[in-house]
Every structure is written in C-alpha cells, then in structure tokens.
Amino acid sequence: MARDYYGTLGVSSDAGPDEIKRAYRRLARELHPDINPDPAAQERFAEVSAAYEVLSDPEKRRIVDLGGDPLGNGGGGGGGDPFAGFGGLGDVMDMFFGAGGRSRGPRSRVQPGADALIRMQLTLEECFSGVTRDLAVDTAVLCSECTGSGCAPGTKPAICDICGGRGEVQSVQRSFLGQVVTSRPCPTCRGLGEVIPDPCRQCGGDGRVRSRRNVGVRIPAGVADGMRVRLAGQGEVGAGGGPAGDLYVEVDEIPHDVFTRDGADLHCTVSLPMTAAALGTTLPLPTLDGTEELHVEPGTQTGTVRTLRGKGMPRLRSTGRVDGRGDLMVHVDVVVPTRLDREQTELLRKLAALRGEEQPNLSAGGRNGHGLFSRLRDTLGGR
User: Fold this and answer.
1) What is the CATH number of domain 1-56?
2) Is 1-56's fold the same as 256-338's?
C-alpha cells in the first residue's frame, strides 16, 4: 500500500507548506545521524526526509492525495522479512547471510502520462506572420466519474489477497550458498499491492478516458518546417490520474508557388523579356508583406541576383522571439523568344546589322580582348 507521508511527518493532509517544513525541521533536529547515532533513528530520519521530499513537491503531493506513491518504485522502509527481493548488493548479501532485507514495495497506481504529437499544416504566409489556432486533440483525460481513482463512486481499493499488499510474490530456492529468494510482480494486482473490487464504469478502473478536446496553440512568426511548439501538460493523462505529459505541435510547411525558403532567406525567379533586360525596366514585385519595386538595370543578364535586404522571413531565436529578418533573393531569367513573326524578324535583323552582329564573333567577349581563336593562335604559334 502507499506510504502515509503525512503520518510520517505528523501533519494532517491539509497542512500548508510552512507547517510541513516546520514539522520536518523539528524531526530532523531530533533524528539527524550527527545528533542521534541510534540505527533506528537513522532509519526514521531517512523516512522523514523522503516524506518531506514528496510533500514539498506539489506534483508529488498531488499523486499522494490521489492515493498513489510517487516513490513506490524506489523501495520502502526496512522490515524483518529475511526473504527480500533482489534490489542491490546489500539485498543479495542480506539474503545469503540472514541479515534481513528490504522489499521493493508495491508499484504506484498513479503513473505519469505520455507525450503526444500532432502535426499542423501551415502556409508560408502563416509561417511568416504567425498564427493562433484551436486544435482538436484526441488524448487520454482524467475520468470525471472517479477523478482518477479507478473506483466506482463510494468504493475504494482493497489489499491484494495474494501478495498481502506487497505488490510482489516470492519463491525460495536452495543453492550451495543457502536459500536464495527471488521476487516477481504479483500476477493478480500487477505489482500494485491492491485491487479494485468495483471498477469505475466510465473508465474501467484506469482512471482516465479517451476524449476529443480543443487546445489553443499560438505559433510564433518565423517557424519553419519540422519545428515543434511545446504545450506543457496538454498531453496524455497518466494511468490512475497521473500528471499529463506534454503536447508537441510539429509544423508542416506547405510549399509555396512563388518563393522557396532557405532558413530565413527567400528565393524567387523573375522572367524578363529580352528587350526589357536590354533596355532596363521597373516592375512591381509581390512579397509576403506588400509589393516592392524591382529596378532592372539595362543589360541585365540571365543569372543576375538582386537582393532585397530585410524582405525575407523573420529570424526566430531559440527563446521564441523574432530577431530581425532574412533577405529576398530575386533571380533574373532572361527569356529569348522562340517564335517571331515576319515584322519582328526583320526588326531583329536590322538591330543585328546596326550592331554588327549578323555573324557571331567568337573572339569577342574574351578577357583582355583575347577570344577563343586568338588563344588557339597564340598557343599554336608558340610551338
């Protein structure tokens, strides 16, 4: 059964934190090993310290008030039973040489809940500005009928008849060292030390039920694909009404039709007609927070990148705060027409004649005036 932590400190179950602290200090001054060397006092001091550790922690105290034992897996007080289970070297020596051992004790019915994960699809615009939503979440919640105890109203758990409340059963085997005792969880109570004769009809004795509920979540500006937002205590409620785990909301960013993302920077491609690239132009460029004018210089070539500073995504720091913004990289793609009518063809021919470009000059455009043919001539002439 769960230990009586309140009785150990000599306080009532509605005692406040200050009263619990005063009771612990009074007992510690009386039982501390430096003051009282009696072995029984030392054992009592350990029990008092464990009780204060539990009752001074609000979450552990809540488990105690629900009928659980937050230290149930950590071992109990000493006892005179020489047939204790294997819990460490001291227990093994006690069993072999008859010095008495300690039982691990029953497992607490109240267990912490698991974390939950849900994915949320967001557009690039929503990642840019942040969003607040209500999510429908299916998780285990506290049973409203029994409030986590697992018992039907008006009933309570009973001590297991098989293990007598110890939560484990033992078997004795003889060896060349003497009697060896092994312990295993009680199959009837599953190591809890108690059974529920009349389970709650709503939860079947588990202390929790599945339910759909709405949870509000705020996604900060600047989040990216794969990032997670943690909502503490919004996950699965534990068995026996134990504390709930956390809920993680993972961002699933939908690809954008225009922009691609690289961290806080954005990239897009602008297709320019050949004439606009040659003459230069100004065109409106839609961005995530309005329209910007993009100035294209005369003679702009394919592959030119124009950078608009501070027009990218917000930079999200590890603290969840925004620290500046990234840049928008505009990649220019000059489009050469593939179909020309007769008039357009004649006009281009006239332009080529005016520029002396009827035939391509492979030597033109080389660095320092040295093109392909001139480099070949210099190479062959040098032999």
Assistant:
1) 1.10.287.110
2) no
- pLDDT: which is higher, 61 or 69: 61
Considering only 17-31, 72-86, 228-242, which range has the smallest mean pLDDT?
A: 72-86
* Mean pLDDT, all residues of the chain: 81
pTM across the whole model: 0.61
The three-state secondary structure class of 29 is helix
91-137 confidence digits (pLDDT tens): 444 434 333 334 566 888 888 989 999 999 999 999 999 999 999 99
What CATH number labels 256-338?
A: 2.60.260.20
State the Cα–Cα distance between residues 132 and 254, nearest whole angstrom: 17
φ, ψ of residue 369 to 5 degrees: the values are: 75, 5
Strands (E) in the chain, as ranges, are: 116-122, 131-142, 158-159, 168-175, 178-185, 194-195, 208-219, 228-231, 247-253, 260-262, 265-273, 281-287, 290-296, 305-308, 314-316, 322-325, 328-335
Would the CA dihedral through 337, 338, 343, 346 be positive or negative?
A: positive
> Residues 55, 16: contact at Cβ < 8 Å?
no
pLDDT above 80 (res 215): yes
Burial degree of 292 (CB within 10 A; 0-12, 13-18, 19+): middle
Is 74-253 in CATH node 3.40.1000.20? no
Domain range annotation of the chain: 1-56, 74-253, 256-338, 342-383
CB 289 within 8 A of CB 349: no
Burial code (b: 16+ CB inside 10 Å, e: under 16) for 125-152 equals: ebbbebbeeeeebebbbbbebbebbbbb
